[in-house]
Amino acid sequence: MKTLVLGGARSGKSLVAERLASRGSAPVTYLATVRVGDDVDLAARVDEHQRRRPSDWATVECGDDLAALLRSTSGTALVDSLGPWLADLTEWREHAGALCDAIVARHGDTIIVSDEVGLSVHPETRVGREFRDALGTLNQRIATVCNDVLFVVAGRVISLAKDRDE
Asked: What is the pLDDT of residues 26-52, one digit of tens each?
């Protein structure tokens, strides 16, 4: 099963994805895309995520090699999340195609978490608008290769239907 879990900041999307990953009996590999650096608040959020995950989950920090890492993992893979991964890329379009191919090729369950930034405040800067547009386009591409797309709002889950013309 390939599942995309979308939601805004602090919507509960990561927790929903973790619950999905916990349902099966296969080993889980958590592919972390965020780089904390000197951000104390972000470090605290990452620590919170790490504490609530089962201790037998493997955690792999990844960069632009996300597609290759997905191809090399067995069992269930949980990618959290596409926003930080995209923000670190210089040429995202080539990586997006490789990521979609890797999702399709995987035999185990694949759960992808991503921010839905199109419902937020309009970015004031050109780079902010470019990021919003790029992530929105990437989310659409990932959704086309997933069996299910879930939208999380205030911890509540809405399953999004495919377009009837697909």
From this structure: 999 999 998 777 777 866 776 787 778
Active site residues: 49
pLDDT digits (tens, 9 = 90+) for 122-132: 889 999 999 99
Domain that holds residue 87: 2-160
Contact between 32 and 85 under an 8 Å Cβ cutoff? The reply is no
Contact present, 165 and 21 (Cβ < 8 Å) = no
- Could you give the CA distance from residue 15 to residue 163 in angstroms, rounded to a whole number? 27
Query: Domain count of the chain?
Result: 1
Say which residue, 43 or 56, is predicted with more confidence.
Answer: 56
Task: From residue 77, give the alpha-carbon distance in Å to each of 120, 121, 124.
Answer: 28, 31, 35
pTM (2 decimals)?
Answer: 0.91
Residue 69: inside a domain: yes
> Which one, of 108, 106, 101, 105, lies nearest residue 142 by Cα?
101
